[in-house]
Amino acid sequence: MRDLVEIGMGRTARRSYDFDDIDIVPSRRTRSSKVVSTGWQIDAYRFDLPLVTHPTDAVVSPHTAIEIGRLGGLAALNAEGLWARHADADSALARVAEAAKDGAAPSEVVQRLQELHAAPVRHDLITEAVRTVRDSGVTVAARVSPQHAAELTPHLLSAGVEILIVQGTIVSAEHVGEDSGESDTDPLNLKDFIADLDVPVVAGGVSDYRTAMHLMRTGAAGVIVGHGYTPGITSTDQVLGIGVPMATALIDAAAARRDYLDETGGRYVHVLADGGVRHSGDIAKAVACGADAVMLGAPLAAASEAPGRGLYWTSAAAHPSLPRSRVAPASAGEHTGVDLRTLLHGPSQDPSGTVNLFGALRRALAKTGYSDLKEFQRVGLTVRH
Q: Which residue range or ranges hold the IMP dehydrogenase/GMP reductase domain (predicted)?
């Protein structure tokens, strides 16, 4: 039975929970961390880590996409970001970092980012970026917004994209028109869109059972749960009044996955957690709540290779009329300079859970007696209040 609370006369609301509200319960056995697996597979593509990057220029360049792929994860290029708009994206990113370093007001830094995104998307530039990653031999993923998916996808596929991510703040099975103030376009019907593609499509974000189920019925191979929430950086809750308690949202999406599996006689749709991850323990909690993988942004922005130079923002920061992300130091800013390999695989000298992120996940599986991620999704949970 759902936990409903009365918030006023005649109005109730559902009580929901975030990662900080829950804890993982150990089982009756433990294992060696050397005999557990953190691998996962979507369609024909297998990865050693349940990691997909949040598609932001602060984290993902062609170079870091290759490195993350070699380290076992999947990096998602933003097909509408600076790498698609500027021939010298490094210089564009340096201008953002310089504005932040010079003590500009937060709004001025966002304005600098908006100005850089005012340049048009160039198909030749995003094609070049995708082919650079493809030629390295790692799996190539790219993100498009629902507004521009139909236009950009043919160019991405011809360049070699193997996994397509259709992501916005909120994504439904049918996107109608544009939210930029321009004239409406034909709606993007995801079911028809996905049916015409030969690559797996991951779509989101969602935050409830019904929308997750609708996206699964479009034929999506994966559903993104969450809006990329990072405390102190994203501001969707302040700007739109929309928030996602991630533990509850993931469990609801996992319930939709289970029901869809029954409905289709065995078609499994992956659930990706996007938001609320600050420490390695949050990754473990996300999987425990039903996630197959996590989308990481801010925790990786502290890496020495990160193109954001220690800063982090989401793609919503550059929205031309309603930005929903700040440009701010990465959440693990005190560890800026640690390389990606160390951030993901260790070793760590830091006890706060911001380094050796997936070594910690392996240890969490081992300490609770589970051998792989699918088993770990059944681990017991407690609520702190």
A: 17-312
Question: Hey, which residues does 8 pair with through a beta bridge?
Answer: 11
Tokens of 30: 């433990």
Overall pTM > 0.85 = yes
Which residues are within 8 A (CB) of 139 and not within 5 positions of it... i.e. 6 or more apart?
Answer: 45, 47, 69, 74, 162, 163
Q: Which of 310, 205, 272 is nearest to 49 (CA)?
A: 272
The Cα 122–Cα 317 span in angstroms is 20
Rounded Cα distance, 224 and 215, in Å = 10
Q: Which helix (H) or strand (E) holds 174?
A: strand 174-175
* Domain extent listing, the chain: 17-383
174 CB-near residues (< 8 Å, 6+ apart): 187, 188, 189, 190
Burial code (b: 16+ CB inside 10 Å, e: under 16) for 247-262 equals bbbbbbbbebbeebee
Hey, which residues does 25 pair with through a beta bridge?
Answer: 380
Amino acid letter, residue 139:
T
Long-range contacts at 40-44 (CB < 8 A, ≥ 24 apart): 40/270, 40/292, 40/293, 40/373, 42/163, 42/200, 42/202, 42/221, 42/222, 42/270, 42/292, 42/293, 43/163, 43/200, 43/221
Domain 17-383, CATH class in plain words: alpha beta
Question: Using CA atoms in the order 179, 198, 130, 359, what is the torsion angle rounded to 10 degrees?
Answer: 90
Express each pLDDT in 188-216 by its tens digit: 889 999 999 999 999 998 999 999 999 99
Residue-wise pLDDT for 272-296, tens only, equals 999 999 999 999 999 999 999 999 9
Closest CA to 74 of 164, 140, 145, 165: 140
